[in-house]
Design a protein that fits this description.
With 387 residues, the chain is mainly alpha-helical. It is built from 15 helices and 6 strands. The strands form 3 sheets. The chain has a two-stranded antiparallel sheet with strand order 1-2. It has a two-stranded antiparallel ribbon with strand order 3-4.
Length: 387
């Protein structure tokens, strides 16, 4: 959720003019504030943050509408004795980036966000430890160094204080070369965000990600879509595409070294932009199956997203309570399209062969997530204008 908000904010900051021109800035601010209001309430002390509601094991044993949920709503707290550096630092990044978004429209709220962001970063950095309450569903594999650098970068952007830039520089050895960008691994985000400090690392990411370079590392489907791993694979394509758009714009403005050198291949800003556009086009229907992976967009799109609320008739039509077992037996196993269209949601997408099985139980391909949609907002805004 925190990564979702940070990426919505980055899109608003980078492409606010284009989003405003589309008449969507008000909606975007509302979406961001929905998240930041929650984070502010969850930050109950200088070293306290409530980071999870619900037992993931018991939640996954129920298939119910939100209105009917009966699984325990256990809440998880991180503090000095039970730290969670990744989630505290990511929440700090979300609040810091949001403080920039609201700087002109709501200065007092912006100040409140920034104060909380600073406290959470101090807490995350001083009391280090990995949060594991969500495992095996949301585990940190890359560690917490990327989140600390990510938060420090956003605090530098929001405050202008050299203290945070110094933190990033002093810990530059903690940000290695990578070939993916996701809610769990933000190293590439830091490197693109502060590309003047990390140009070699940022260049490596795109050399490894884009096709037809001598240093390509990321797999592709026959149709040209990035394939990193099953389970919300669209996030890797969208994340890389958003970074490519941002980096293309940055390179285009650079006075020197405005290309990416990949061994024998030289990438120009237009190459990055075209890559980003191609990935977005694939998601929206320009693919071998001619299916849009955004629900409700185009003439063909997923009918059975793996989503409890969408797959069970609404309380307005079905007044009877739906139990855990009934949800699985009657609705989860139904072969009919979801009764509620989850308009705008992007699902996990195709497998490595461009195949897609539109069956609700196929969570790897059908599960929608906010962290997949969030960077797509900024990317789509950028694609409304030519490079």
């Amino acid at each position: 959720m925190a990564f979702t908000i940070t990426m919505l904010c980055w899109g608003a900051i980078e492409y606010g003019r284009l989003i405003d021109a589309a008449g969507e800035m008000g909606n975007l601010r509302d979406a961001i504030r929905w998240g930041t209001d929650y984070f502010l309430r969850a930050n109950t002390g200088s070293s306290e943050l409530w980071v999870q509601v619900g037992d993931p094991y018991k939640d996954h044993n129920c298939w119910q509408r939100p209105e009917d949920m009966e699984s325990p709503r256990k809440s998880y707290l991180i503090n000095q004795t039970s730290p969670g550096t990744e989630v505290a630092a990511e929440t700090s990044a979300a609040l810091a980036s949001a403080s920039i978004v609201f700087q002109s429209s709501d200065p007092s709220y912006s100040t409140k966000l920034l104060q909380s962001a600073i406290r959470l970063f101090q807490f995350a950095d001083r009391f280090r430890g990995t949060f594991s309450g969500g495992c095996p569903f949301y585990c940190s594999v890359s560690g917490y160094q990327d989140e600390l650098l990510w938060a420090a970068s956003w605090l530098y952007k929001s405050t202008g204080s050299s203290m945070y830039l110094s933190y990033v520089i002093d810990h530059a050895d903690k940000s290695g070369i990578v070939s993916e960008f996701s809610w769990e691994n933000k190293h590439a985000g830091v490197q693109v965000f502060l590309s003047t400090r990390y140009k070699d690392e940022a260049d490596f990411f795109f050399c490894a990600t884009l096709p037809n370079t001598s240093e390509t590392q990321v797999d592709r489907t026959p149709g040209g879509f990035i394939y990193v791993r099953s389970g919300a694979n669209t996030q890797y394509s969208i994340g890389a595409s958003f970074l490519a758009a941002v980096y293309a714009d940055s390179l285009a403005k650079a006075q020197v070294s405005n290309t990416v050198s990949c061994g024998r291949t030289l990438l120009h800003p237009r190459d990055l932009f075209n890559f980003a556009k191609g990935q977005a086009d694939y998601i929206l229907g320009d693919n071998p199956r001619r299916i849009s992976y955004m629900v409700g967009f185009g003439s063909s799109f997923p009918q059975q997203p793996h989503h409890r609320g969408a797959s069970i008739e609404s309380v307005a039509k079905l007044h009877a309570r739906v139990s855990c077992g009934e949800g699985f037996y009657t609705w989860y196993s139904s072969k009919s399209p979801n009764p509620n269209e989850l308009t705008g949601a992007i699902v996990g997408g195709p497998d490595r062969d461009d195949s897609f099985v539109d069956v609700r139980s196929n969570s790897a391909q059908l599960e929608p997530t906010t962290y997949v949609n969030a960077p797509f907002v900024g990317l789509l805004a950028r694609l409304t204008a030519q490079i």
